[in-house]
From TrEMBL:
InterPro entries documented for this protein: Crtac1, FG-GAP, Integrin_alpha_N, UnbV_ASPIC
Pfam hit, one: FG-GAP_3
Protein name, per record: ASPIC/UnbV domain-containing protein
Entry keyword set: Signal
Species per Swiss-Prot/TrEMBL record: marine metagenome
Domain ASPIC/UnbV residues, every copy: 204-270
Record field: transmembrane: none
Amino acid sequence: RNGGDGTFTDMALIAGVGYSGDGRMEASMGADFGDYDNDGWLDLVVPNFQREPTSVYRNEGDGMFAYESSRSGIGRGSLAFVGWSTAFFDYDNDGFLDVFIANGHTLDNIELFDASATYPQRNQLFANRHDGTFQDVSDQVGPGMATSKVSRGAAFGDYDQDGDIDIFVVHSKKAADLLRNEGGHRAGHWLHVRVVGVTSNRDGIGARVEIQADGLKQIREIKAGSGLYGQNDLRATFGLGGKTQIDLLQVRWPSGVVDRIHNLPADQMVVVMEGEGRVVESQSEGGD
């Protein structure tokens, strides 16, 4: 917890995120925060070692987290893998955050003494089912997710500017993979938000971006450093499903300044400058 005076206090044990659900220490790698249930509070996902379920902690809004690995479905689905980098992101633009995990064992000869394990492993994509649970759809989203490699880091961003999030994955002793998302912009509408700090830092690190669209509320935080060995696109990306207009876009800056913009059409990128309270630039981004 940030004390506001340059110091921090370790609250993991008290908050319920220091151990697994049964109180065990685990071999964790990457981690990411994101509001997967759209309740306005950032939840936490942490991949772990083989036979240790990926930890999913749901923020209860009172400084405490509930251990949701089993209920979410991600825990059981990750037991056979060694997880590294991870991220919450909306791969199908339906307005709910999904989970990607980069997998690969640490031992290149693991098959010699553990017949159930392999050194190269497939990565995993868990689709949000809108009810607090996730479904492993890794074998349903194309050849990019079908290969088995020794993955480590991953970074996320819309490199082809078509409105959905692509993935760049790095591997041990293999060339990196660029996984282009071919379906997100077709499945749902979207909004990219780039923030430019004035009093706050230029990239708006620490800013919280919130949108409301026909009853759907979502939040993102602008972060430096992502998952493990990576840096994601600094733009906040929102999937909107069938909604074509954003009723409210709000940016709360580290300085305390709050900018609010109303009635924005979907399927574009907007640039918001701190304290201006308006869209500095509006740029439609196409692609199919």
